[in-house]
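Troubleshooting: if your tokenizer reports a length mismatch, compare against these two reference records.
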Amino acid sequence: MSPSHADKPLGLIAGSGALPVTLAETQADKVFVVALEGAAEVALQQYPHITVPIGCMKAAADALLAAGCLDIVIIGGIERPNLEKLELDEGGQWFLEQVSSGNHAGDDKLLKVIIAYFEMRGLNVCSAQDYLCGQTGRTGPQTKHDHIAHQPDIDRAIEVASVAGSQDIGQSVVVGRRLVLAIEGPEGTDGMLQRLRDLSPEFLGTPEERRGVLVKLPKPQQDRRIDIPAVGGRTVELAAAACLAGIVFEAGGTLFDDFDSVVALAEKKGLFLLGLDRQN
């Protein structure tokens, strides 16, 4: 939090998952939560809060300002809505007009419009990493499982992830035998990993001989204050179920719901977990 704002509550716009809860816990009694309807965890209701539909951006900004917030963090999973069916207030209508009038088809561009709205209202959008620095991972191998044998797949996946990210397609890629097995789409990383079940067995590993890697990296051009890549226990479980060999992430550019727990689970499931230096 900005030193000049230390006496103000942190505003938290919360989507789904454990990360918003973890961040709220770090702020004790100095947090005000805007819980996105149908997404935010019930545990956030213990804090001063308001629940709003995702399209009611003016209601969210008004509540944050009324609570005395100056700095805000936008964190948690949000399913991409059907803009034609979205319940909108004045702020949501402004958002829709902006994305309809320009080239804002990709998630990164849509998120930058969201940031612009809240900054236009006088709120400072901050990076979640500033508050969860202990949950952004470490550089190097994190489990005892070998990644060296899979380096060709890792290199290929990093290359593809960089291209896909630069085109605002997705953050995650799976490569096995240097073949691109999956690229993240609107379904997100978990949905992408579940898609692997439909592949022919010849492309997949086995529990005894794991093959293929998941690489999840920030997009080269993305604003790192929002939608930073997240890896959790569910990611590890799905990667293990797909018989992948390991997961690669950018240390400092990834958020974990509980880094030590994710490392322990990857160890147990037989996956390597490799942290890279910043890629861009």
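Reference record two:
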Amino acid sequence: MFVEFNEHRYLTFLQQNYTPATIISITIVPENHCPSIKELFDDHVQALPRWHRAKYYHVPCQKHSNLVCFYDNDYFMCLCDIDRHANCFKFDYKQDYNYLGSNYCENDGKFYQDNDTCPTSSSCFCKECYYGSRCQFTTMGFGLSLDDILGYSIWPNFPFSKQPIIVKLCTSGTILMFTIGIINAILSTVTFQTKGSLQIGCGLYLLASSITSFLTMTLFIAKFVLLLLSQMSIITNYTLLKSNCVCLDILMKSFLAIGDWLNACSVLRLDSDEFIYFLLFDVE
């Protein structure tokens, strides 16, 4: 059994005797890499007709003791046996990445399924700078969002326990930020809604800023959870995902801008109150 990964081919499993049904657990290792004849022969051998250069195929097996397989670019796949002879056979290199006549994956992604006749699982192999269960998202652009930074690292169709360490660290950091932010927003709201705080000119702005901060942190954790669940293919509802992209981003940016304006207004009001107090004190 051969596997193609990042345009490199590997020998993953070799069975001497046929077994009707078996469970196979394999690991792709560099030692089982199958190089091309372009890496093994000079230009003179490569330029020979197919059947003329085939007589040289025993040379790599005898020259490289760790070589397990290699392939001709258009016809042969060869295995090096225990006697260091090349056992070559015809190999179909034509890849079909379509699903039912059309490409299921977007942005030129490659579609893979475990069985051509009756598949039970499938996945999309995305090009660089694309991610998502169907390669529908991209990191190309001028701005950086949460989707661009973290979404590229989340593995579709894998549980959270098997996600990369960077995803787990970001999740822990997000939960910590949310907890601190919510506690800060609640305490600020309780503080600035007192009668004494509201009597100060900037007290109303600070109260509104605390409420805005609470709403912003709530939207942030909601967006993070939706991003995590959608990239893990747990949430697949198109309407919900579209509303997440349209509504949550706009609301988060709006609340961030409102919070900045409220903080600026509270500073201006505080400065104006101090200026008026200075004038009154100077007149007296």
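Descriptive notes for reference record two:
- The first strand starts at residue 2 and ends at 5.
- The mean pLDDT is 77.
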